[in-house]
Amino acid sequence: MDLGLKGRTAIVCAASQGLSKASAMALAREGVHLVIAARRREVLESAADEISSATGNRPKTVVADVTTKDGRDAILAACPAPDILINNAGGPPPGDFRKFEREDWIKALDGNMLAPIALIKATLDGMMARRFGRIVNITSHAVKAPVAMLALSNGARSGLTGFIAGLARSTAEHNVTINNLLPGTFDTDRLKSNLAALAKNSSRAVDKVTEEIRTANPTKRFGHPDEFGATCAFLCSVPAGYITGQNILIDGGAYPGTF
């Protein structure tokens, strides 16, 4: 399928690893001109090298913390008029909500709600004026099925979800779509850290906890980041122009509900 994206421009946040890197890789394969951002230069440049080697399309890199205004300004200076915006930031740490202080909640909101909103605010009107825009927010399956130890993520990402629900319908007539992608258990460093925390909290071996979570999924495996990246690229495509305001769960069927 031709996604109709060749020559488009995209910002991909937190793209040095994991699901954002996979999304950047998928967009690069479609001929999108990329600006990828992350905090750690060495890891970011390595990701750019990997994308370039696999696709022949080298992204521009911006070392920046997307949760700060200076970081967002640096990203937007490198790509002031993107056609595509992929929002993501490192998830907040797991833990017992009783141990979190106000600063922990503010940090979670800054990363997983307020930073995406700020980037949308900075880029949305230009997309609407040009009559093409695709915004995808990488959130979490915990938005739909909250996980107790991910209290910070549950709260912050649900706030973003509510905001997007109110915004997405107002942009659709201008050919600008806004959707949320809700990943389940994908084979990433973030999953490994969450499994380690779960094992520690339950006084069990990491290998045992990992196997339990893996086999509990209907697919009997964890998702591959490339599967996520392909879904993200499709949501950014021309053929996906009639999909907006949706929370798309990509979790191997783990969520048991009908709706």
From TrEMBL:
Coiled-coil portions: none
Domain of life: Bacteria
SUPFAM superfamilies, sorted: NAD(P)-binding Rossmann-fold domains
Pfam families listed in its UniProt record: adh_short_C2
Similarity annotation: Belongs to the short-chain dehydrogenases/reductases (SDR) family.
Identification of the protein by name: 3-oxoacyl-[acyl-carrier protein] reductase
PANTHER family: 3-OXOACYL-(ACYL-CARRIER-PROTEIN) REDUCTASE, NADPH-DEPENDENT REDUCTASE BACG
InterPro entries: NAD(P)-bd_dom_sf (IPR036291), SDR (IPR050259), SDR_fam (IPR002347)
CDD domains cross-referenced by the UniProt entry: BKR_like_SDR_like
